[in-house]
Amino acid sequence: MLYFDARLSDHVPTLEVRVADVCQSDEQAAVIAGLLRALVETAVRDWQAGHLVMSVPAAVLRTWMWQASSSGVDADLIDPLTGTPAAAAVVVGRLLDTVRAVLDEYEETGRVEEILAEILSAGSGARPQREVHQTTSDVAAIVRRALEATHASSREGAALRSAVAARGLRAL
C-alpha cells in the first residue's frame, strides 16, 4: 500500500494534500488551503534560492504526525524546527512566521491569523467529536454533530460570500 500526505497529481498541475482535520467551517477549510499554498510557495522559493532543506527521517515524521493527530491543538505539538515538544500556539506561530511573506502577498495574513486564533482557542474539529463520543459513544451522533457544524457554517459562509461579492471585495 502506498501512503502519502502530499503528492503531485498525475493528471493536473497541482499538489494533492490530505486534509489535516475535520474542518468545522468553510473558513477553516479555506485557511488550511491558504496555509498549504503559502507553505508550498515558501518551500519552492527557498529551493529556488538554494536554501538547504532539513532532512527528517520518515519514521520521525510519522511519529510527530501521530502525536498531532491524537491531540490536535489541545496539547503540545512537535516543533519541526527543533524536534522538541512546544505549545500548539508556539508551533503555529512559527508556521505563520515561515509563510508570512506569501500570506502578505495574497493579503490573507490577518484573516488566517484570526481563524487560527479561533482554532487554537476553541480546538480543532476533533474536539467536539471527542466530546460527543465521551457522552454517548454513538458513532451516528458524532457524524450528526459534524454534519450540523459544517452545514451551519456552509449557510453562513454562503451569505458572507454573497455580501462580499455584492461589495466587489476580495474574500479569502
TrEMBL record:
This is Carboxylate-amine ligase. InterPro entries: GCL_type2/YbdK_subfam, GCS2, Gln_synth/guanido_kin_cat_dom. It catalyses: L-cysteine + L-glutamate + ATP = gamma-L-glutamyl-L-cysteine + ADP + phosphate + H(+). It comes from Brevibacterium daeguense. It comes from the Bacteria. It holds the Pfam family GCS2.
